[in-house]
Known about the structure:
- There is one protein chain.
- The protein is an alpha/beta fold and 336 residues long.
- It folds into 2 domains: 4-94, Multidrug-efflux Transporter Regulator, Chain: A, Domain 2, CATH 1.10.1660; 97-177 and 183-300, no CATH class.
- It contains 12 helices and 7 strands.
- The protein has helices at 14-21, 25-35, 52-66, 74-82, 97-110, 114-127, 130-148, 155-177, 198-217, 255-267, 293-300, 312-329, and strands at 12-13, 41-42, 48-50, 183-191, 220-229, 244-248, 272-274.
- The protein has a 4-stranded parallel β-sheet. Strands 1-3-2 form a 3-stranded antiparallel β-sheet.
- The chain is globular.
- The two termini are 15 Å apart.
Amino acid sequence: MPDAEHQDEVLLPIGEVSAITGVNAVTLRAWQRRFGLVIPARTPKGHRLYTPDNIQEIHEINTWLAKGVAISKVKPLLLSAAKSLPLESTQTEITDIWAEQIAALTAALLVFNQHKLHQILDEAIGLYPFQLVKNKLLQPWLNHIDSLLVERLDAELITAWLKSELLSRIGGRFALVGQVHSARVTVVELYRVMQVSVNSTRTNTLFSLILLLELAALRVSVIDLGEQAIGSLPLLSDRLKVDALLLIPDASHSGSEQTEILTTLEQMAFPCFVIGPFAPTYASLSAFYMSTVSDLISSVSPKSQTVTRPQAANVQQTIKADANVKNMTGDNSDIN
């Protein structure tokens, strides 16, 4: 049973709270352990159960984080709001941490500082909801990198190094989500028969890296086939057992290439979607266009994966899955 003072409240396990708030279980534990935030009730066996007040607190924290406040600075702001005190009384400096981290990531990238690059990414993805990291850090940073490299002689070298580093990280995250996946997808970057500009290729490469990180964060099992010609797509139809095929088109496919893509997609044995920075420019492929990854996952995930209130057995499954993730990340403390 949960704590006596919470017996009349609706209490939710950490997995369901994560689905509701967008903050994963590892991050919620880190907030509690490192910053004293979002303290849940506990069962006699020590499993976390979250109250409506806990969930409201998570939403408030997310609001501050979206404004650029560091997670380490949030607690005084919550206390100030609870006591109706002016923010000045907390003596908390509100600065945009995302701009600072973009600058730090760029500096690490240009000198191939592997340790610093992974340190910044690990802390951001470990302490903040992924969608916030994507919108405030990853997307702005890679957009900045894309424009920065246009005139640099070492642009391809830097892109190749960054791709190698992020793919190694993505591979580790796929191992973590392999336990229970929300969907299975294959990702393909389509290249043209006629060579396109290096800049458009780099734009797609950088987009695909964010896409793979986001799919991993959403517990999606991914087969990344890299760059492939349009003509190779029919060869995949009878070989892959996936929920969807994601295609990232290039900047300027010809009319005949678009027709070939459309014909191929209509004949595939599984749902197919086009996504990426150049996908919206192809009116002929609009029926297959998917604007966001979350919409994609909602459309292809099995009905049984829909989040509902777990019964006792499912709560235990969630606890075990979280424990597996903690073990693989090397964080073996406080796993419930």
